[in-house]
Each structure stands twice: as structure tokens, then as C-alpha cells.
């Protein structure tokens, strides 16, 4: 036998031995029956303090960890239901609410008291973190919030506000995660340097929800444990949300049964899993809307309403929704998503290059014309941008796609240093004003809205929007939002294109998983395996 | 006295290197288009929240002041607080760096053993099929995207054959039952006394380490082959041959000690590059190492985390180089004696 043959046999032997060792060591474990394992990216998580957390991962956890005075119905978010408040009464002035607290306990065992409500809402305003603007809508500031949120007696708490809004709107705001009630006795004990316990709550929890944080390792995993003191004890002992940054790995994990739920898979991966046994794909409408934002101040052409109109006929709405996003979005052409009161569902625009060309020619806009197009360097934005590039080119508009990281795109939006961009909007709370205030308010460029980013000054629409938010008659209010949507749909520097549709992959074993329209409406409490 | 002076000189150059590294990294993060304050508060936040975040992050200060503040924090040893994890950077690094060290060490051990074996085999059988196979493997190791290879290995060994566990450092049943003490999964599970957990940790380490080892193996085997072939033409090898030594004796007894310095250097370089460059492997295998920590920090514009992780990786690079130099010098001195 030659030396080389001996060597090759040894090499093969070593490789085989290594493979065997690997195989022997690999205990192929299924997820335990009392634990739900979720595979998703949790890299976005900054803080699990409900007064600060405003990222997808953190808001998805808040409904499971904390309770608010009131909550949105899981199926129909527009319906507001009791939670920590057993009942409530509006004041005769229309600018106050008095809540009667239900009997409830925090995970620590402490009872939920009016003091906890006062502490939670006032600290959220005083901390002034990312979602604070939601409570600021009531006119609450760090200086006046102490007087606005007060204890009436051992079972009642009263909220008053100065903003010109009704109690229905105030209740909607109170369904937002920032209005979560934290255990004052636990949190205050952890406070350092007047931070109201913010440093501690970033990675811990002190709520009365179905679960409590038992361990959180950034970029690794969030472990929730059933709250024994919860009024509605969850079916499972724990939920482990594992950080799996790569989508292909997430798909493998759920396919192999090492994860019960996988989120954020791409359309082609969902297609591949649809007919696989042991797996089901849940499709949930989402309140996210995708739109084009044009900067009217960038140059003379972009400032012309005719250019905005032409742009509406240069989007292949159906092609993007059906061929590119395949079930992950639907065509939607108004600023209120379907599911919100008053949302327009008609789709008056379709790809019509000849019409766009005519609109451009009638307005004297010369082509070819080049537009800088800044886009998130992530899918599906890049694919959508390429589709737009192709259809806009047919009318002589060359889109120069410039991909960038999210904060860069946001920063350029804020400073007005862009020509055209592709954005998405997720409502911050379950009320039409959340979106209307973004797209239809800009009196003089002094407020921070999408209309301001577009350089679109609209005092009349601003007045209409502010009238809508204080309207107490529900039917009239709906009519006002429909009117606003129609005006913005036909003449604005926004081209609304799509409404999201969340696709979640679940193991067949998972039962009663619930997810609602808004980003925070993810519920693990009823899940069984 | 003769020992103290070189040590002082080395410490001085070490400090200068770290300072230079901090300066360059700081400048790069400031030139990047990412706005850390906006990254922190998001697009929906009010202007007052955004302004408060800028103040909190010290971004309202002039650049030289920001840099001096950072150096001050770094010198105090705590490396500041990460914006994206909300934790002290030193604590984050203490958590993520052991994961990378564990992965890189396993990879370099596998890569060095296989790379040396392949290099020696190729040199001994120059211009035969063994040599051709070794060169193809080496070329493949150099050119194949590690990300793609990782996914392929997962598909084959995890999804199809079920020989290896899936991504992550441990199965969920063990992940929170073993208390992290050192941060090294193998050591912690061993110390826990749970045989199943230890076995699980080895199984999770094996696949990503093999993928990374493949990359290291390429450079090690190529250099081993070249070094041995160069030595084969030397006079001392001819003399040994004349004395009747066979090929194996010539390689193992005569040549390998002579080229050990070179081989040690290439292995150390491979190790250093694994410590800093395992990002994609860490992403595919959901391995919570420093490569991923640094990448996530970069996308988040998380200045304290970027600077802290860069300094630690840079320092370990310099230390590893110094250690290798010391070992090579000792080896050569030993051989001369």
C-alpha cells in the first residue's frame, strides 16, 4: 500500500470519526411542552421600560408583561375594554376621566393601587423618552402632570387634561404601551439618580401582566415566566424569545421543531413552508402602511402637484403586492389602515404610464428627469424601490436609488436633505389621529410630522385635523377623517401604496396564539401546546 | 533591569496603538451618516426627546471634548454605557467576548490540526492527487463565502442528517439551567456537573467551529506545504537523506522544528482574524459573540459599544502578536542552543 493511500484512508477515517462524534453529541431536542420558543431578531430592543421601549421587540412584549387602565380589544382594536380599571366615568367638562380600579396584583404580590397609576403615568411624562409624545397629546408636560393625575381615594384615580380633545381620544391614548402601570413600590426602590427606576426597568419588569421577565440577555434572549399573581394565569410556564438574526436560520429552527414560532421570514421562505406538514402560516393584517414621501422643497419640479399626481400613476401597485411581496402586503392607498375607523378602502390609482406622461407634459415638466431616491438598505424596501425605478423610468423619471441605514434615512427626512424616499408608518395608538397627525398637520413647519418632512405647509388641513380629534360624535369624526384621507389621497406629496400583512410561522402544536392589527398586539397568555 | 526596559517600551507602544485605534474608530463613527440620537429615540419621537437624547449621549459637545470624555471613561475601565443594550459596555464585552474566544479557539485548533496534516501530506506527495486535493481544499477554503458555507452545513448536518443541533450556544432546556460563571459554555457546563449540558455545549460548538476552521485551514495548509517544500531543497535535508532517514522522519524530526516559527505565526494570525472576523458565522449560527455585538453596535451608531469592542479586539490582537513573537523567539533560541 502506498503512503498516499494510507494518508487518504486516515484522513477519511478522521472526517468520519468527527462526523460520528458530532452525531453522537447532538441531542436533537424538541421544545418542552410548557415552554414556547419564539425565533426572531431582538437586536432592536433598547429598553423594556414601558415608558421608554418603542421598538418592535419591546412593544410586542408589553401586552404580556404589563396591564394598562384600559386595553384595545384583541380582534377589534377600536373597542376599548376594562383592564386594571373596572370602570370609568367622563367628567362633565369633557376633559377628565375618573377610573375605578379592579382588584389586581403585580408579579411582586403587591396590590395595584391608585398610587401606582399616578407614579406610572407621571414618570412616563417626566422621563420624556421616545413614546412620551403620546401622553403629551393630552397637554401633559413634566410641569403639569402631577396635578393632572391624582388619587381620589384608595380605589379611584382621576385624570384631567388641558388639550382640546375628548375622553374617547384620551382613552385611546391610554391603551398605548407607555400607559402601562408599573409597581411603584418595586420600581421606586430601584431608582438611581432620579431616573424613576428607568435603569433597572430597562432589563427587568414590574407589571401585573400574564408574564414577568425572568431573564434578559441583550442580543441573545428574552425569557418570560408566568406571573403566579396574574388575574388570568397563562397556560404556559414560560416564553423564550431567542435572538436569531439570520432569517434562514429562523426558518430551519421552526422547520426542525426547535422553535415553535418564527417571525420576519421573507415571502419566498413562507412560500416554501406553506405546505410543509407540522407547520402553519398565520396571516394577520397589520396597521403598517408603506408610502412614498416626496420633498416638495427639494426642487421646483418636486414642488409641483402635477409631479405628485404623475407619481401616483407610476406605481405598479398590484405587481408589488402580488409578485414581490406575495401575501406580505395588500394594495392600500389611504393614510388610515383598514381596521381603523373611517379607513378608505378604495384604490383609485393603478399603473398608467401614458396618463402619467400626459400629466407631466401638461404641467410643462420636462423629461428625462433625475430624482435621488433614498431607501432603507433592507428588504422588502430595496425590491420595492427597484420596481418603482423600473416603472418611473417608463415616464422618463430616473430614480437614483441610494440605500442607507434607518437612522440615516430618518435623519435626512428630518433635515429635509432628500428628494424622494420610501417610508412606512405604524400607528402609535389605536386612534385615527395617530396617522392623521403625521400626514395632515403642518401649520408652519414647527411640528415634527411627515408633512413637515415633505416641506408641505397645510394650515387648512391642520385645522381640519385638530377639529376631527376633538369631535365627540363618532359618526361625524369618521366623516372628517374620510374627507381628510380623500384630500391627501388625491393631492399630497405622499403616495400611499401598501398595507402590511404579518406572516407568522407556527408549529402545528401551538394553539390560541393571538396577534392584532397594531404592532404591540401580540399575546402569549392563552397559548397552549 | 535588562527585562524592564523592553517591557516598558512594549507597554508604551501598546498604549500608543490603543490610543491610535480609539482615535481612528472615533473619527470613523463621527464620519458615518448614522445619527446615534435618532437611532436611539426613533422617528416618531418628539423634538424635545431627540434633543434630550443628544445631550444624554454628549453629542451636543464639540468633537474634541467628546473624544476626551471617552478616553477618560475608557481609562476608568468601565468603557461607558451601551446605547443599544442599556448595559455597561464592559459587562457586554465580558458576556460576548468569551463566546467568540471559545468559538475561535475551537476553530483554530481544528483548523491547525487539519491544516498542518493537509499541508504535510501535500508536500510529501507533491504533484500527486493528494497535492491536488489539498490545493483544491485550500482554494475552496479561501474563496467560499463563510456565510454560505455555514448555511449549507446547517442544512446538511442539522436539517437533513440531524447530526448537529441548530443555531445557538445551547438548547433551550439547558440555556437557563446552567449559571454563566466564566462565560465559556464548555467550562460553565462542565462546572455545573450536568453531563447533558456539557455534551450539548460541545455539539453546538462543533458545527460553527468546523465552518470557521475550514477558513483557517486554507492559509495554514498552504503555508505548511510551501515551508516544507522550501526546506526539502536545503543541505541539511540532503545530508539526512544520505544518512538514510525516510521522508516522514525528515519532515517530522528535521523540517518541522525548523519551520515551527513560521507555522506558529500563521496559526496566530489565523486565530487573531477569527477573533475579530467571525461576524457572519456568528450571525448564521446565532452565536452571541463580540463580532455580532460590534456589528449591531455599528448599525445602531452605539459609540461607547463600538469603541469599547474595537479597543478590546485591538488589544487582544496586539497581545496575541506579542505572545507569538515571544514564543517564536524562544523557539528559535531553544533551537540554537
TrEMBL record, chain A:
Q: Which UniProt keywords apply?
A: Plasmid, Signal, Transport
Q: Which residues form the signal peptide?
A: 1-29
**Pfam families (alphabetical):** SBP_bac_5
The compartments listed are:
Periplasm
Question: Which GO cellular component terms, listed alphabetically, does the Swiss-Prot or TrEMBL entry include?
Answer: ATP-binding cassette (ABC) transporter complex; outer membrane-bounded periplasmic space
Annotated GO molecular function terms are: peptide transmembrane transporter activity
Keyword field contains Transport: yes
Domain Solute-binding protein family, by residue range, is 79-444
- The answer on whether this UniProt entry bears the keyword Signal reads yes
Q: Which domain of life is it from?
A: Bacteria
Single Gene Ontology BP term? Answer: peptide transport
What family is this protein classified in?
Answer: Belongs to the bacterial solute-binding protein 5 family.
Protein name, entry field: ABC transporter substrate-binding protein
Amino acid at each position: 500500500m502506498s503512503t498516499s493511500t494510507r494518508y487518504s484512508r486516515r484522513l477519511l477515517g478522521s472526517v468520519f470519526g468527527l462526523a460520528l462524534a458530532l452525531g453522537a453529541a447532538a441531542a436533537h431536542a424538541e421544545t418542552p411542552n410548557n415552554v414556547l420558543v419564539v425565533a426572531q431578531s431582538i437586536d432592536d430592543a433598547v429598553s423594556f421600560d414601558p415608558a421608554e421601549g418603542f421598538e418592535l421587540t419591546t412593544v410586542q412584549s408589553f401586552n404580556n408583561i404589563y396591564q394598562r387602565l384600559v386595553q384595545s380589544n384583541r380582534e377589534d382594536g377600536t373597542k376599548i375594554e376594562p383592564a386594571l380599571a373596572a370602570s370609568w366615568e367622563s367628567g362633565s367638562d369633557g376633559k377628565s376621566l375618573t377610573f375605578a380600579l379592579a382588584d389586581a396584583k403585580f408579579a411582586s404580590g403587591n396590590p395595584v393601587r391608585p398610587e401606582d397609576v399616578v407614579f406610572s403615568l407621571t414618570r412616563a411624562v417626566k422621563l420624556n423618552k421616545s413614546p412620551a409624545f403620546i401622553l403629551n397629546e393630552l397637554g401633559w408636560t413634566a410641569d403639569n402632570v402631577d396635578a393632572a393625575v391624582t388619587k381620589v381615594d384608595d380605589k379611584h384615580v382621576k385624570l384631567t387634561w388641558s388639550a382640546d380633545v375628548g375622553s374617547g381620544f384620551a382613552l385611546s391614548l391610554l391603551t398605548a404601551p407607555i400607559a402601562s402601570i408599573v409597581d411603584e413600590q418595586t420600581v421606586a426602590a430601584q431608582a438611581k439618580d432620579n431616573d424613576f427606576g428607568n435603569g433597572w426597568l430597562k432589563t427587568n419588569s414590574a407589571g401585573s401582566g400574564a408574564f414577568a421577565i425572568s431573564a434578559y440577555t441583550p442580543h441573545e434572549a428574552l425569557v418570560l415566566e408566568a406571573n403566579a399573581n396574574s388575574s388570568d394565569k397563562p397556560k404556559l410556564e414560560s416564553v423564550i424569545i431567542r435572538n436569531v438574526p439570520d432569517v434562514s436560520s429562523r426558518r430551519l429552527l421552526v422547520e426542525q421543531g426547535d422553535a415553535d414560532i418564527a417571525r420576519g421570514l421573507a415571502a419566498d421562505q413562507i412560500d416554501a413552508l406553506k405546505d410543509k406538514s407540522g407547520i402553519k402560516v398565520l396571516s394577520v393584517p397589520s396597521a403598517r402602511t408603506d408610502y412614498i414621501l416626496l420633498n416638495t422643497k427639494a426642487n421646483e419640479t418636486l414642488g409641483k402637484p402635477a409631479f405628485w399626481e404623475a407619481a401616483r400613476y407610476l406605481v405598479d401597485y398590484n405587481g408589488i403586492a402580488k409578485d414581490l411581496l406575495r401575501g406580505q402586503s395588500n394594495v392600500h392607498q389611504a393614510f388610515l389602515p383598514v381596521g381603523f375607523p373611517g379607513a378608505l378602502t378604495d384604490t383609485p390609482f393603478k399603473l398608467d404610464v401614458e396618463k402619467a406622461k400626459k400629466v407631466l407634459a401638461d404641467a410643462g415638466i420636462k423629461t428625462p428627469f433625475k430624482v435621488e431616491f433614498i431607501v432603507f438598505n433592507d428588504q422588502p424596501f430595496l425590491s420595492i424601490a427597484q420596481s418603482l425605478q423600473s416603472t418611473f423610468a417608463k415616464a422618463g423619471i430616473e430614480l437614483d436609488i441610494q440605500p442607507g441605514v434607518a437612522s440615516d434615512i430618518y435623519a435626512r427626512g428630518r433635515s429635509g436633505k432628500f428628494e424622494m424616499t420610501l417610508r412606512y408608518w405604524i400607528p402609535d395608538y389605536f386612534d385615527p389621529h395617530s396617522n392623521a397627525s403625521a400626514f395632515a398637520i403642518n401649520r408652519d413647519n414647527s411640528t415634527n410630522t411627515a408633512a413637515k418632512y415633505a416641506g408641505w405647509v397645510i394650515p387648512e388641513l391642520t385645522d381640519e385635523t385638530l377639529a376631527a380629534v376633538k369631535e365627540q360624535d363618532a359618526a361625524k369624526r369618521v366623516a372628517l377623517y374620510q374627507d381628510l384621507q380623500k384630500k391627501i389621497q388625491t393631492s399630497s406629496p405622499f403616495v400611499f401604496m401598501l398595507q402590511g400583512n404579518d406572516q407568522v410561522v407556527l408549529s402545528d402544536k401551538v394553539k390560541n396564539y393571538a396577534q392584532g392589527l397594531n404592532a404591540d398586539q401580540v399575546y402569549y397568555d392563552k397559548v397552549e401546546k | 533591569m535588562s527585562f524592564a526596559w523592553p517591557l516598558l517600551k512594549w507597554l508604551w507602544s501598546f498604549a500608543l496603538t490603543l490610543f491610535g485605534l480609539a482615535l481612528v474608530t472615533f473619527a470613523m463613527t463621527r464620519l458615518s451618516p448614522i445619527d446615534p440620537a435618532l437611532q436611539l429615540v426613533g422617528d416618531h419621537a418628539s423634538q424635545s426627546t431627540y434633543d434630550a437624547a443628544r445631550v444624554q449621549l454628549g453629542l451636543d459637545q464639540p468633537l474634541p471634548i467628546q473624544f476626551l470624555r471617552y478616553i477618560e471613561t475608557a481609562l476608568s475601565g468601565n468603557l461607558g454605557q451601551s446605547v443599544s443594550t442599556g448595559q455597561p459596555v464592559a459587562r457586554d464585552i465580558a458576556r460576548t467576548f468569551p463566546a467568540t474566544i471559545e468559538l475561535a479557539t475551537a476553530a483554530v485548533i481544528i483548523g491547525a490540526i487539519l491544516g498542518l496534516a493537509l499541508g504535510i501530506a501535500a508536500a510529501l506527495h507533491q504533484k500527486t492527487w493528494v497535492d491536488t486535493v489539498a490545493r483544491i481544499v485550500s482554494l475552496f477554503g479561501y474563496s467560499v463565502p463563510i456565510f454560505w458555507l455555514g448555511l449549507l452545513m446547517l442544512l446538511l448536518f442539522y436539517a437533513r442528517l440531524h447530526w448537529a443541533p441548530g443555531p445557538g450556544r445551547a438548547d433551550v432546556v439547558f440555556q437557563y439551567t446552567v449559571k454563566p460563571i466564566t462565560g465559556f459554555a464548555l467550562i460553565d457546563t462542565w462546572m455545573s456537573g450536568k453531563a447533558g449540558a456539557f455534551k450539548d455545549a460541545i455539539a453546538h460548538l462543533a458545527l460553527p467551529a468546523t465552518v470557521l476552521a475550514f477558513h483557517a485551514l486554507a492559509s495554514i495548509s498552504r503555508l505548511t506545504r510551501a515551508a516544507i517544500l522550501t526546506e526539502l531543497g536545503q543541505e541539511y535535508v540532503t545530508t539526512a537523506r544520505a544518512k538514510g532517514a525516510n521522508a516522514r522522519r525528515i519532515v517530522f524530526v528535521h523540517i518541522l522544528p525548523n519551520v515551527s516559527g513560521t507555522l506558529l505565526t500563521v496559526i496566530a494570525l489565523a486565530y487573531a482574524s477569527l477573533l475579530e472576523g467571525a461576524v457572519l458565522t456568528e450571525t448564521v449560527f446565532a452565536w452571541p459573540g463580540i463580532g455580532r455585538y460590534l456589528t449591531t453596535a455599528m448599525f445602531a451608531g452605539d459609540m461607547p459599544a463600538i469603541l469599547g469592542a474595537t479597543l478590546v479586539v485591538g488589544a487582544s490582537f496586539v497581545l496575541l502578536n506579542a505572545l507569538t513573537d515571544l514564543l517564536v523567539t524562544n523557539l528559535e533560541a531553544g533551537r540554537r542552543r
